[in-house]
Input
Amino acid sequence: MLEGILIGLSTAFSVANLLMVVGGCFIGTIIGMLPGLGPMSIIAIMIPVAISIGDPSAALILLAGVYYRAIFLVGPHRQFWLMHLAYPPRWSPVLTGTR
Output
């Protein structure tokens, strides 16, 4: 039992899978800011990309990173990220609520 847990942790924390998480979160951030394109639709679009990776654990980690970043970016955080990325000097009113 302990051996299986150690194998799973070594797989999850390998360099390739950590890069998949970072890449998935980056893609999820970009997709989460786009109106009309939600997390489920980007997962459906990225299934061929995940299949072409070849490693099933890396593919699932990539899709999980995309999904969770896109799902948790919607709501009040979307306006903050859009203003922060588009106009850095003008994003303080978003935080303070003043003009």
About this structure: The two ends are 58 Å apart (CA to CA).
